[in-house]
Amino acid sequence: MSFDIDPASLTAGAELQGRFDAVQSRALAAGVVGLGLSLAGGLLWPTAALPAYLVAILFWTGISLGSIGLAFLHHLVGGSWGLPLRRPFEAGASMIVVMALLFAPIALGLRFIYIWTDPEVVAHNEAIAHKVEVLKYLTPSGFTTRSIVYFAIWIVAALLLDLGSRSQDGREDDAPSRRLYAVSGPAIVVMFLTATFAAFDWGMSLDPDWYSTIYGVILIVGEILSALAFMTVVAVRTSTFEPMRRAVTPERLNDVGNLLLAFTMLWAYMSFSQYLIIWLGNLGEEVSWYLRRTQGLWGAIGLCLIAFQFFAPFLALLSREAKRKGQWVLPIASWIVLMRVVELCWLVLPAGSEIGSPRFPWGSIPWVLTSMVGVGGVWIAAFVWRLRSAPLIPLHDPRIMAALEHSGEALV
Amino acid sequence: MSGVQGSDNHEHEVYGLIAEFDGPDRLVEVTQEAFDRGFRLMEAYTPFPVEGLDFALGYYRNKVPATVLAGGLLGGLSGFALQCWSAMAYYPHDIAGKPLYSWPAFIPITFEMTILGGAFAAVFGMLYYNGLPSLYHPVFNVPEFVAASDDRFFLCIQSRDPMFDPKETLGFLETCAPRVISVVPY
Q1: Rg (alpha carbons) of chain B, rounded to whole number
Q2: A306 Cβ neighbours under 8 A, 6+ residues apart
Q3: Contact at CB, B105 and A280, closer than 8 angstroms
Q4: Is B69 part of the contact surface with chain A (CB cutoff 8 Å)?
Q5: What is the ipTM of this complex?
Q6: Residue pLDDT, tens place only, B62-96
Q7: B107: chain A residues, CB-CB within 8 Å
Q8: 0.80 surpassed by pTM
Q9: Which of A88, A337, B38, B46 has a Cα-to-Cα distance from B139 of 20 to 30 A?
Q10: Where do the structural domains in chain B lie, given as residue ranges?
Q11: What is the rounded CA–CA span in Å between residue A105 and residue A147?
């Protein structure tokens, strides 16, 4: 029995549909409650709640962006590892629409998040004044306009992926897949450029006196890593049900485990490169970023990132036999997703704090939780809705079929 | 050679029995069947890497991963130690006011040396455990074997295997419907 015989057998069965229902309604309820609490927090204590909300926005937008990038990558290079992940990637990519809506509070609350909106700060710092007044780059209108452009481009990319792949399901010729293949290379370039600028605008401008050219890549690699880990969790969790049981094979888990290992190493490589260069240069305007993120409790969290975002998954993913087991890959992938939240807190929350007087923003931590649950609940509910509306395995995809044929894998 | 071996050990008169198959899928099935029957000292020969064959042969548990880990650790530690020694003892030098023991600066070389050690251990460890380079191998005594680098797939069950019995093993291979079964002489 091969995959392309019966489309009906590739949509989620009754049991999985029941699970989807439960996840959807629970996620939606959690999302509404979380967003409600975050809204209350944002109105009452905006300086504590809005940076926390930015953490959630960066995290969930990152999952969507990583999904877009990985789906394009799979269209470009093919391979059977994408079989269980392609539909989750496409559904995750479409969630960029949800994120565009949920981004509104950031644009409305700029002055509670970014210190370059404060004329007092700008007047006293030449580097910030240069970016705000001379270049006119960091302005509220510029920030908002650019964000709208990023989201517009990403929505087009996500629709191309999602609709293109679905239109392939119903036909025998491979025209939609060929079109996507042709688009993928340039699209990855555009995604990298827009995601880099978004990283500069949303993340790097939190410390407007500082700059790092590798910052965009650090964030992008983290986004890809977290998206891959998140979708691995989705694939393994659904793999107890048909048709995902047939798609999640030990060989493919092995491939996905290798990819997780590679992106974990790439993330560490990028993060360490930035640290090494700034540490060697030892210039006042560059080290400030690390001084803010190593003082007090943040220093301990930074060390935790080295130990638990790099070494723990790195060592756990070394063994080939372990990577072939779903019950081993699942906790590692979940762990990577969790550490991504910690990393984003470490990147966002210490921004603009005074160097030399360590003060941990305890007031923001509850709002990180409510925002993560709020944005995440809505994201997951919409994601499941999108995921279940199509067969869970992309049908007739020529790249996947070629990969299956080449490896001689049993399709049963 | 066979005389020397055969004088005290009847089983070692031949190297083994080799069966020839048309396709990779059939070879994997047969290999799995042989493994399930308890054969361990066997080897498969194919024109290209066949997915799943290593598992069917039971070869996924080998010493290469441990060797690579050891090689990587050794490479990384020696790279780090070399830098510590040269920067702190052999040629101490004040660079940009940094302490002599500037471990962040040592990381890139340590990383590269880990990769180098791991890669060397993987390649040479694999060759060593495979018994390569080898100037003579009995399977080449079978004329049909040249097709192993073209379009045929072979499974050779060696006579050293404790389960090996000339008649029974031949009987088992015959039930697998190969194209040809050959005796592999020494």
Answers
A1: 24
A2: none
A3: yes
A4: yes
A5: 0.77
A6: 788 899 999 999 999 999 999 999 999 999 988 88
A7: 272, 276
A8: yes
A9: B38
A10: 2-61+135-185, 64-130
A11: 12
